Amino acid sequence: MSATTPASFAGTPAAAKRRGGRAAITLLPFAVLISLFLVAPTLSLIWGSFHDNKTGVFTFENYSYLQHPLDLVPFKNSLELSLASTVVGGLVGLLIAQAIVSSRRPIIQEIATTFSSVAANFAGVPLAFAFIATLGANGLLTRQLLNAGVDLYGGGFKLYSVLGLTIVYAYWEIPLMVLVMLPPLQAMKPAWREAAEILGASRWQYLRSVAIPILMTPFISSLLLLYANAFGAYATAYGLTDGFVALVPIQISNLINGDISFDPGQADALAIGLAVIMVVCIGGRAILERRSARWLAR
Amino acid sequence: MSRLALGGISKRFGEQVAVRDFNLTVEDGELVSFLGPSGCGKTTTLRITAGFESPDMGSIVLDGVDVTDLPPNRRGMGMVFQGYALFPNMTAAENVDFGLSVRKRPAAERKARIAELLELFGLAHVAGSYPHQMSGGQQQRVALARAVAIQPGVLLLDEPLSAVDAKVREELRTEIRRMQVQMGITTILVTHDQSEALSISDRVVVMNRGAIEEVGTPAQIYAEPRSAFTARFIGAMNEIPVRIVSAAHGLVERGERRVTVAGATGLADGELALLLVRPESLEPLGPTSGTLNGDLTMAGQVEVQTFLGATTRLLVREVPTRAGDPTALPPTQRFAVDIPSANAGRWPTGSNLSVKIPVGVSRLIADRSAPGGVLSSSATSGGKAKPYA
Amino acid sequence: MSGTSITGEATEETLPAVVAGAEARRSARKRPGRGPRMPVWAAVTLLMAAVYFLLPLYGTAVFGFSTGKHFTLQPLFDGLADEGFQASLQLSLTYSIVTTILALLVVAPTAYLVELRFPRLRTAIEFVTILPFVIPPIILAVGLETVFGINSPINLIASSWAPVLLIGGYFVLTLPFVFRAIDNALRAVDVRMLSEASASLGAGPVRTFLRVIVPSISLGLVSAALLAFTTAMGEFTLAALLGYATFPVYLLNVNGYEPRMGEGLVLVSFVITWAGVIALAAVARKAPGTLAFSRGALM
Fold this sequence. Notes:
The complex is a heterotrimer.
Chain A: H1 13-26, H2 28-49, H3 73-103, H4 106-121, H5 125-135, H6 140-147, H7 162-187, H8 190-198, H9 203-232, H10 235-241, H11 248-257, H12 264-295
Helix pairs in contact in A: 2-12, 3-7, 3-9, 4-7, 5-10, 7-9, 8-9, 9-12, 11-12
Chain B: E1 2-13, E2 16-27, E3 31-35, H1 42-50, E4 57-62, E5 65-66, E6 78-80, H2 92-102, H3 107-120, H4 136-149, E7 154-158, H5 166-183, E8 186-191, H6 194-200, E9 203-208, E10 211-216, H7 218-223, H8 228-233, E11 237-246, E12 251-254, E13 257-260, E14 272-277, E15 283-284, E16 296-307, E17 311-318, E18 335-340, E19 352-357, E20 363-366, E21 374-376, E22 386-387
Parallel strand pairs in B: 3-8, 3-9, 6-7, 7-8
Antiparallel strand pairs in B: 1-2, 1-4, 4-5, 9-10, 11-12, 11-14, 11-21, 12-13, 14-20, 15-19, 16-17, 16-19, 17-18, 21-22
Chain C: H1 14-27, H2 40-64, E1 66-67, E2 70-71, H3 74-81, H4 83-116, H5 122-134, H6 137-148, H7 162-188, H8 191-200, H9 205-216, H10 218-234, H11 237-242, H12 247-257, H13 259-286
Antiparallel strand pairs in C: 1-2
Helix pairs in contact in C: 2-13, 3-13, 4-7, 4-10, 4-12, 5-7, 7-10, 8-9, 10-13, 12-13
């Protein structure tokens, strides 16, 4: 018990211990739920990835995909798709976020923020179908463009290609970028700019020496979030392709649900590979966030 | 020669007049404070001087050159912002260097200047620290060093001490003054803290509702305020009701006594007016006190003693000499008397006290706008006067 | 996720007014009498963004609301009347509501006790609440399948305990949002001071929590509830892989044989998302810092 313990919690050490015990019991449901539905699945995944799912013998066989170029195709596709949608979402989202801040109209800021929240959450199957209706082989825009003389599909475009998926993923990557970059952009103090100005700096000198260095940390951190977001996405890709695209999440689902390719051990190993990428992104983000919070604290 | 001349500056924001016909010349090496309640236009005037706002009317002349249309980055002024606005991505040294590097000064010169300034402000040990690693006082010093590094023609300080705590504030304001005198930098200080303005300024500009209320040395402003606003805004002030017997002869009445005072012209006979008297000007009357020499008196019971250091402030509830006296203090109000702390034992709580109101150092104002009773603000309360209740 | 709440520093009372005044002046610079000017590039950017974001919705509406050439709301009515739709929506609603209640009941007391009594557990809890980001639903689905699936000794999926499995999974998926919303609210009020004040007046811990803490973090609880509910309503991956016929899963299936009806129901789904987010925005206006979330990573 520390010195700040309120008087009512004091008393005999035994009484304090009893109360502490009662408080600890309150934490029990949380601990049980987390153990059952988060920790146990994660551990079994790790265990499963190192064991043959038929014989139960310890093996590295499940990770053999790391050595076969063909088995790495889903990783290559996922990396490309995530990179593309991160770059597109990151740059366009940054532009839109700055436009929202520069609009200086509270009403626009409010509408844009709310709509970004909707769009960032309008992912998965419904989004896939919305794009099929718009940019699919018989989609509205596809037909309109065809009438205008632009044959998308004749030109080799496919909605379920990496390019097509990038366009669809951008639908939530862009607004997500807007949502995560708005706070740092809004935290940029006008006085910084004024201080630079009165010290003799031009607009460009202010941007180069002050604004860009300050915003670089939250920007990179946001890109990491976008990357993880795209890499782990399953529903949108599945809705668009019915499972016929070689991406890591799709491959994992085929391995546990598929009739032909059923192999839970390899699914576990693939999932671990995916988790490693997530840990790198989210962990890197957590480190960067800490630095950014110091600079942009109000 | 005057260093800076602000001539006829006016500025409106929409329907609201922020600054009204502001005229001021600041002499070389002078420290002038803009003092006033929030919203009085002092910050806007400073921002117009810096070039962040453009005036609707008027001109800013710096060293004989009209700079009204120059952007801030070509005015060669230094400024310390409220909350400092230090660049969070730069160390103390890099912040100080910013203005020099923008000016493309030779590296050796920059290095020497930074070292000199950090030394002068006692920052040498935090040269490599980032703002978030520094204390409020240190950040404030870095902001000052950054502003003076470019050897500005005029140094503008926008509430520079509002973000540091009381103890550091007093220390820093002395330091600002020392540095300002030593470097001979012409400085404008915007503040809502009267003790800050009075303690370190050569002159104080008291502002109210966008206009200059009065300009004077701190001693003038405190001892001989020319406007009722200044009198009330600066320091603690008793407002004692009196009745005008004859405005033409300056004859006023309080209780059973009548005296002649200055400044009654313009008031109507029979009207109630207020005498403004500082707590330290009220003289307690002992049993052996001599003649009153045509001064007014006031008597009552001590309710609270507040120890202020060298002096002790007595809050006294008036006991009117006769019932229904229109010049008696309203029952919810108290008057304040400052006495040397050594004498405090003579008037414990509950004791009776009579005081002389020396009309020679009092100021008469009409009662119309008066909040009434005792208006007071302690030296550090931020200038917002609150009547004792 | 960025979710820092904006708490004012304790400064002199006149200061915020001064700052606010200067702020207003700054933004009104050089535009007497009128609102601030919006830069052209900003207007163009926002307009183009609006086109990109509205186009797929328009495409969906055109496809879903026409039979060949004519405008009709029939596919939508068909969809709404469809028994499969109704059953799946009911299932989704049930799971979402139960998840929401469970999340609030479990997370709120936990977050409160961690803040008040077990500050040393904070790092651990924060780590746990970030985990669902690291372990997206596709991974969690595989893990849950291994532990509680058909090939496991504890086969929940094929038992009458099946709902528990999905709700447990949803509890984990919504945890980051729920915990963050409640924790932000708890940190915005001085929990320790409130609890000590309540205790000094003679209230026990339970009464303190229910009568003092819960009312003072009510906005955070509403935020948390909305976040949990909308997340669970839209969740597809866990449900599909573990074999539950929730609304998003039904949506995928119906599109296979009745595309127009599917597109009509997409708009229903969109309306649900809108309703949830607008309700959140209304709450966030009173309690800033809760809005910036995205379910994208969890899809």
